[in-house]
Amino acid sequence: MAVRVRFAPSPTGALHIGGIRTALYNYLFARHHGGAFVLRIEDTDQSRHVPQAEEYIVEALRWLGLLPDEGPGFGGDCGPYRQSERKAIYHQHAQALVERGKAYYAFDTPEELEALRQREAHFSYNYQTRTRLRNSLSMKPEEVEALLRSGAPYVIRLQVMPDEEVHIQDLIRGEVVFQSSELDDKVLLKADGMPTYHLANIVDDHLMRITHVIRGEEWLSSTAHHVLLYRAFGWEPTMPQFAHLPLILRPEGQGKLSKRDGARFGIPVFPLSWKGASAEDCFLGFREAGFLPPAVLNFLALLGWHPGGEQEVFSMEEMVRLFSLEHISKGGARFDYDKARWFNQRYIMATDNATLAQYLRPLAEAKGYRADLPYLERVAALMKERVSLLPDFLEEGYYLFEPVRTYDDESIRKKWNSALQPVLEAIADRIPSVQPFDAPALEAAVKALLQEHQAKAGEVLPLLRLALVGTMKGPPVFDTAALLGPAETAERLRRGMAYFLQCQAVARDQ
Fold first, then answer.
1. Do 460 and 450 meet the contact criterion of CB atoms below 8 Å apart?
2. Could you report the per-residue pLDDT of 456-491, keeping only the tens digit for each?
3. Dihedral sign for Cα atoms in the order 121, 122, 126, 129
4. How many Å apart are CA 335 and CA 310, to the nearest integer?
5. 409-509 domain in CATH 1.20.1440.230?
6. Least buried of 78, 348, 350, 449, by fewest C-beta within 10 Å?
7. E strands along 318-463, which residues?
8. Do 467 and 497 form a contact (C-beta atoms < 8 A)?
9. How far apart are alpha carbons 37 and 75 in whole angstroms?
């Protein structure tokens, strides 16, 4: 049977980065086996549905290149792929379970059940309590029929029989055993006619021919009910194999990473930024923080999986070829944001300048900077080995777009010598006539002037750098000058000298 996996998020808000890792593992597994990657939107909980959330999910998958083979907007022969559009299917299957004696009608009101929970601290709707509650197992058939005809609200519950062992051979965790006597009779169909996660999940996985369910470990406890549902439907022979992924832990390694941790640690924990109704529901995304998609995928892939060896940087092709569930760890993986930045730095360095220019263009336009692609390609070439995030090109390299804002006074006091002023003035005068105006020609012209003035490069070149960019850090000084152009370079040298003299005067007066 061909491998078919699914990513089934709920559109209740921004998609957490842990959800993206689940999508990535499903995608890698499908591609490794030449199978299908299905997107299914689990939107049965209408009370928590957020209209723009589905668009966010699809946009995040598109940004990362995790394109589904089937799903809303992607086609496929197992649709519809939104659970809200499959209501009749779930109703039909729930009724079939009632007719087979595997499920039953329950007429208890929410108020009645809440009162029971108040009286009984550990109340559970199960084989011990259902006979004293208002359901089709405890009531006479004519009473049940009368209630159904009258339109009385009801739910349909799974009838869990006691004293059974439910064995699950998890592909990551090995054998897991549940005792049915400890399980409650889960609601399958709610009073509003919508299915619960448990019913919809099983029916959809069966009808969509899902062969492997790869999901977070928080769903492991629900798997016992899911296995019982497969048995109840008679689908156990085609039941998918289960693999439950380890948690992504907070940066300090304790507890599950949550959406609130992003604000607490000042780091993104979502693929894309999200703007909610309140400030507390607005979150920074990896894309907006300045990450490249392949860097995010590489970082996430190694949060729980590694094929062995020392290699850390993997292309998508390599990850697809090497991926296996056997190499996923059982323990949680710490969310190391510094490591994410390290990956991004590596990918920025490996990305061609033309591609980086495309990423930089909207950032430059937003700041009102020069944004033509040829110029941004040259900026990328100068800065790509010095930055970790895309905005760093414009923030750390702002001096490639606007005049120097501040000078490093401490370095100026160490480097400036008024005896060097004639040399700098001569360089400023000579600069406009250098042809061609590129780094090799500029270097040759400056060295010739240094020889004429019997000045040392170690004394003059640091001052050139300070005049051009305000700091001792940054790209090579002649490459920087070549990018700025003759007029701007000469102007900055003169402006810098004026500041150096001012700084010297201040130091003398102190």
1. yes
2. 999 999 999 999 999 999 999 999 999 999 999 999
3. negative
4. 19
5. no
6. 350
7. 333-334
8. yes
9. 12
- Which residues face 101 on adjacent strands? none
Angstrom CA distances, 473 to 38, 203, 464, 480, stand at 49, 61, 12, 12
With a CB cutoff of 8 Å and minimum separation 6, the contacts of 231 are none
Tokens 């299917």 -> residue? 89
Confidence of residue 47 (pLDDT cuts 50, 70, 90): confident
Length reported for the chain:
510
Could you say which DSSP state residue 15 is in?
Answer: P
Write the single-letter amino acid at 184: D
Q: Where in the chain is the domain with CATH 3.40.50.620?
A: 1-70+246-350
Between CA 351 and CA 293 the distance in angstroms is: 12
Give me the sign of the Cα torsion angle 371, 375, 378, 379. negative
Task: Write the pLDDT tens digit of every residue in 327-352.
Answer: 999 999 999 999 999 999 999 999 99
Residue 418 amino acid letter: S
Q: How many CA atoms lie within 13 A of 136 on its CB side?
A: 23
Q: Which residues are catalytic?
A: 259
| Average pLDDT score over residue span 400-411 | 97
DSSP assignment of 189-216 equals E-TTSPBPHHHHHHHHHHHTT--EEEEE
Query: What's the confidence (pLDDT) of residue 281?
Result: 86
Query: Is the pTM here over 0.90, yes or no?
Result: yes
Q: Look at domain 352-397 and name its CATH class.
A: mainly alpha
Residue 435: its pLDDT value, please?
96
CATH class of 86-245: alpha beta
Residue by residue, DSSP assigns 436-487 as S-SHHHHHHHHHHHHHHTT--HHHHHHHHHHHHHSSS-SS-HHHHHHHH-HH
Pairing between β-strand 282-283 and β-strand 274-275 as defined by DSSP bridges: antiparallel
Amino acid at 468: L
Helix (H, G, I), strand (E, B) or coil at 309: coil
